[in-house]
Amino acid sequence: MLLEFSEKIGQSSSHAGIQTHFDPQSMTESKPTTSYDVAQRAGVSQSAVSRCFRPGSSISPKTRARVLAAAHELGYHPNAMASGLITKRSNLVAVMISNLTNLYYPEVLAEITRRLSDHGISVLLVALQAESEADAMLDQVWRYRVDGAIIAAQVSPEQLSYFARRRVPVVLYNRFGEGGNVPSVCCDSIGGERQLVDQLVGAGHRKFGIIAGPDDSYVSQQRVSGAQQRLKELGCEALLVKGAFDYDSGDAGLRSLMAMTDGKLDALICANDLMAIGAIDCARANFGIDVPKDLSIVGFDGVAPATWASYRLSTVRQPVRRMTEAAVSMLVERIEDPDLPPEVRTFSGKLIEGASARLTPIA
Amino acid sequence: MLLEFSEKIGQSSSHAGIQTHFDPQSMTESKPTTSYDVAQRAGVSQSAVSRCFRPGSSISPKTRARVLAAAHELGYHPNAMASGLITKRSNLVAVMISNLTNLYYPEVLAEITRRLSDHGISVLLVALQAESEADAMLDQVWRYRVDGAIIAAQVSPEQLSYFARRRVPVVLYNRFGEGGNVPSVCCDSIGGERQLVDQLVGAGHRKFGIIAGPDDSYVSQQRVSGAQQRLKELGCEALLVKGAFDYDSGDAGLRSLMAMTDGKLDALICANDLMAIGAIDCARANFGIDVPKDLSIVGFDGVAPATWASYRLSTVRQPVRRMTEAAVSMLVERIEDPDLPPEVRTFSGKLIEGASARLTPIA
DNA sequence: ACAGAGTTTGCATTCGGATGCAACATCCGA
DNA sequence: TCGGATGTTGCATCCGAATGCAAACTCTGT
User: Fold this and answer.
1) For B280-306, how does the pLDDT look when each residue is reduced to its tens digit (9 = 90+)?
2) Which residues is B242 bridged to in the sheet?
3) I want to staple B152 with a disulfide (CB 3.0 to 4.6 A). Which of A210, B88, B157, B173 is the partner?
4) Measured in Å, how far apart are chain A's first and last C-alpha atoms?
5) What mean pLDDT comes out for the span A285-301?
């Protein structure tokens, strides 16, 4: 036996009413308690027990007290599988996330989980690594009859339409699906990048480099095209290299750009913070560049390390709390009423001046 | 309607056999398909359908093919709640994590999730923020009748014994419960710290500072006492300040220690990487200290930022893959056989030399 | 063609809680 | 004291898949 079973169970059997013999010993061996056990102990019907745990049901305070007491004594917890079976509500929501190691998502995940649990909803975590895994993982999602899903991962349109067909509400997080026909929560990448570009150009930068994220990333596309577009409007040239949203991509990207421009680069726009951090480290360590004096580097996201003294990254911080709050409430609303129209809520990020980019003209 | 329902359903109705009328249109409206629907379409009994999806059941290849075809056409997925109800196996495992924002846990979480899904097990994520939430969150855990739990969070002994009483297997991750009576997977904190101390002392450091983690953290206690003990053995003095495992604690801790020692500090041992990083930044930015020339700083964990060029932290890296692999397999074994004895598997971390500490004597 | 061994199949029941309905209790005013 | 409005309660049934059992089937050797 792993542990001592020492809890005081079956002691408070002093209240009146019909009672069957209750053997504390059997607790440790018997099958988990059911509503029938509780009903028997409380001297009521199973229905009454059920109603006790179902808000809004008709039950007298007296019965309720008796039942709750019995339930507590027996350590009873309603079986979510049984109740889900009949109510067709699992109170489970799938949260699908691609790369948990992205530094940005853990915060999002923690927030979402907390907020969902405020609604009495638990999280079925689906961590996708490779695109190919999605189908296998989705099988699990279907089996558990989740009430909805929050998706911050690459999911094919077919897979998305599968959700729609089953009428399982979905909210995309920083993605965009099916021409705006799927509810989603996004941070305004284009606006954010335009702000960054405006500041950088206003400060006198002219020659730009951009390190993009993976091709299939929606946010990368948005951020890059937002920056490119604004740079074009302002008559600046920009060289583009591809990255993978990770630290090493920042390093590699900067090296490529330095080679391409022969070192003549005013500012570097990275599609996320992690690459910006990699680029800063590379600039300093490998090229002896003073950031931001010789080169301005900006990122996007506002992850925790961006604020660290070594970087003090100039970036656009996504309003994680507001975004997760929106995602959860949009989802919960659609679980209540699946016919709500799709809606795309876009949030503006906050420009963080930081100290990795010169954002004002030289006096 | 949010999406076009254009999938080719009900087209491949060319195979022989008794068939009822099948209306593709009804797919979009009707209730989700059950094993009875599949049975009817395949012209077999519900039992046959069930056996098709249950490995090891007796079913002929022919029937199997028919059923699978029908299931595919109808988009059928077995209802995990219904099957869990009768088999008493939910195929759910609770993964409880305290502070997801700790940089170390996302990696662990991703690994664990992936490995569990290899066993056909899904993850019910429980993200604890405050200790006080644990009870409310555990209620969810009990309702879903999880098959087991992997716990990397502060959980009270009472709560742990609750698992034991219900015979729900638990594996602790980097914790230690009930005098070794709970299966657990740990990284050898004491050994790791001793290695660090040995190296530091061997390199000539004598005056040490230690920044601890939160009082209630098991790993913090282990790491700190491991370091203290070895330092004492080697006749070195060490000042201790308290932290909270976050970046700011590194900063604050270093400031305290500098004040206490009047700047005369040879080496700083931080109970985790994040605090070490905070301390490095603080040393450089606020005290103009050259790390590691004037001060050696070491951490513990081996998180991703520790490898970044700005830090190149000297630390002990936990073998995350081996540890998660052990945690998952220990749990799965105990789900199969709950009577397996508790077991504590300890893994040695890997010393990463890095460049934030001078680990060899001055020539 | 048939007995017998081995396979495959369907029937009926089960898991634990939710809920419509009817029976019952309670309380109010007249 | 009684009618009726309101509030509680229990009964019976249902949700969807798994499974013991017995019936039906397949195949083998003779």
Assistant:
1) 999 999 999 999 999 999 999 999 999
2) B212
3) B173
4) 75
5) 95
Whether residue A61 is preceded by a cis peptide bond, meaning omega within 30 degrees of 0, is no
Q: Which residues pair with B152 in a beta bridge?
A: B97
- Decide: residue A118, CB within 10 A, 0-12 exposed, 13-18 middle, 19+ buried: exposed
d(CA B284, CA B253): 14
In chain B, which residues have their Cβ closer than 8 Å to the Cβ of A139? Answer: 77
Query: What's the whole-number mean pLDDT along residues B155-168?
Result: 90
Report the distance separating Cα B315 and Cα B327, nearest Å.
23
Q: Is B298 helix (H, G, I), strand (E, B) or coil?
A: strand
Tell me which residue in B80, B113, B127 faces A143 most closely, judged by beta carbons.
Answer: B80
Cα gap B203→B362, rounded to integer Å: 7
* Measured CA A161 to C1' C17 distance, in angstroms: 32
Please identify which residue in the block is written with the tokens 């050696």.
B296
Element of type H or E holding A282: helix A273-287
Amino acid at B11: Q
Q: Please name every residue paired with A352 in a beta bridge, in sequence order, or none if there are none.
A: A315
Q: Which residue has the tokens 């520790």?
A: B306
**Are B79 and B133 spatial neighbours (Cβ–Cβ below 8 Å)?**
no
A47 CA, C22 C1': Å apart:
15
Using CA atoms, how far residue A285 sits from A276, B209, B310, in Å, is: 14, 29, 8
Residues 56-85 of B with CB under 8 A from A: 75, 77-82, 84-85
Q: Which residues contact A132 (CB under 8 A, 6 or more apart)?
A: none
Q: Which two tokens stand for residue B301?
A: 């964990």
Confidence class for position B191, pLDDT limits 50, 70, 90 = very high
**What is the chain A residue with the closest CA to B343?**
A2
CA-based nearest residue to A154, from A279, A270, A249, A245 = A245
B68-115 tens-digit pLDDT: 999 999 999 999 999 999 999 999 999 999 877 777 888 899 999 999
pTM of the model: 0.89
Would you state the pLDDT for residue B131?
67
Confidence tier at B16 by pLDDT (50, 70, 90): very low
**Interchain contact, B166 vs A125, CB within 8 Å:** no
